């Protein structure tokens, strides 16, 4: 008998830990995570994504800012899970910084975006992460991301 030691999350669990919904939910499954350390997730890129209608009709490419957003959403899931909290009407984790963003190759319909985020430090409520995205084992993007929990103005 084999025991699966990975911590995974299906879409229903992800929806409990992210405030995003269609068409802006960009995490389909969490493959593994360790609280306070790392999270690995996937985004299945479909031709039916609404952004492909205009980016670009002759050669559909996932916009780089949405790849960054998918990585940022992965950081949000990890932050909420680590803090043993869920999105609510009072506060959210906001993306507050992106440094060293690089794009190495396009992401196209049919690709599976494999996202890895690792906590590099937490200072005064600001979470800093090293994030990468790959397709078929090839690096497509990397960035240093920062997020912070903040109250929602009423």
UniProtKB/TrEMBL annotation:
It comes from the Bacteria. Its EC number is 4.2.1.59. It catalyses: a (3R)-hydroxyacyl-[ACP] = a (2E)-enoyl-[ACP] + H2O. GO terms for cellular component: cytoplasm; membrane. It is an enzyme of class 4 (lyase). The keyword Phosphoprotein does not apply. One of its GO terms (biological process) is fatty acid biosynthetic process. Keywords: Cytoplasm, Lipid A biosynthesis, Lipid biosynthesis, Lipid metabolism, Lyase. InterPro entries: FabA_FabZ (IPR013114), FabZ (IPR010084), HotDog_dom_sf (IPR029069). SUPFAM superfamilies: Thioesterase/thiol ester dehydrase-isomerase (SSF54637). Involved in unsaturated fatty acids biosynthesis. Catalyzes the dehydration of short chain beta-hydroxyacyl-ACPs and long chain saturated and unsaturated beta-hydroxyacyl-ACPs. This is 3-hydroxyacyl-[acyl-carrier-protein] dehydratase FabZ. It comes from Beggiatoa alba B18LD. The gene is fabZ.
